[in-house]
Amino acid sequence: MSGVLFPEPLTADAFRPFGEVIEPDNASEIKLINNGTTTRFHDIAPVEVGEGRALISIFRGKPFALPLQVRMLERHPLGSQAFMPIEGRPYLVVVAPDDGGRPGAPRAFLCEGDKGVSYARNVWHHPLVALGERSDFLVVDRGGEGVNLEEFVFDEPYSVESSAR
Ligand SMILES: NC(=O)N[C@@H](O)C(=O)O
Ligand code: NI
């Protein structure tokens, strides 16, 4: 199966089958803390690490442009993986439901630089795709023993096209 994907806008509801959008409006609770000087947008997404440990890293993504050929997807069976843009630049997310141990129909989301994504454990996704310029992302994911990467290569690539027609 292959074809053309047109990126959808990233919204919490649309993305929820794959994880959570990291943005203030998607917080489970909003609390004033620090004597009212700070607002805590609480518990936006769980960090799943199983028996491992949570890692904080910075990914410096080289820029891609559309159309993008999606030849593979990956997933992390032992933990979640969250990406938050540090420099406010756009990026592309490609995810897919699981279909009997392989990716089902992929979906692409065009993400503005003010929102992050957290892939739930074992969700098929494309590795980081920064758009336009090199950009840094804060990444929270799982470290420790065990194989935490499964990859699937499509027979035919999908082409992610710009929605602008
Ligand atoms: N390999 C690695 O740490 N990065 C990927 O998991 C990714 O989703 O970018
Ligand atoms: Ni990943």
How would you describe what is shown here?
This protein has 165 residues and is an all-beta fold. Strands 2, 7, 10, 13, 15 and 16 form a six-stranded mixed beta sheet that branches. It contains one helix and 18 strands. The mean pLDDT is 96. The two termini are 24 Å apart. It has a single domain (3-160), classed as Jelly Rolls, CATH 2.60.120. Strand 11 and strand 12 form a beta hairpin. It binds (2S)-(carbamoylamino)(hydroxy)ethanoic acid and nickel (II) ion. Residues 74, 81, 125, 127-128 line the site of (2S)-(carbamoylamino)(hydroxy)ethanoic acid.
Kindly summarize this structure in a few lines.
With 165 residues, the chain is mainly β. The protein has one domain (3-160): Ureidoglycolate hydrolase (Jelly Rolls, Sandwich). 2% of the residues lie in helices and 53% in strands.
Topology, pairings included?
Elements: E1 3-5, E2 8-9, H1 12-15, E3 19-22, E4 29-33, E5 38-42, E6 53-61, E7 63-64, E8 68-75, E9 81-85, E10 91-96, E11 98-99, E12 102-103, E13 107-111, E14 116-119, E15 124-125, E16 129-131, E17 135-143, E18 150-160
Parallel strand pairs: 1-18, 2-13, 7-16
Antiparallel strand pairs: 3-14, 4-5, 6-17, 8-18, 9-14, 9-17, 10-13, 10-15, 10-16, 11-12
Residues 74, 76, 81, 125, 127 line the site of nickel (II) ion.
InterPro entries: RmlC_Cupin_sf, UAH_cupin, Ureidogly_lyase, Ureidogly_lyase_bac, Ureidoglycolate_lyase_dom_sf
Pathway: Nitrogen metabolism; (S)-allantoin degradation
Catalytic activity: (S)-ureidoglycolate = urea + glyoxylate
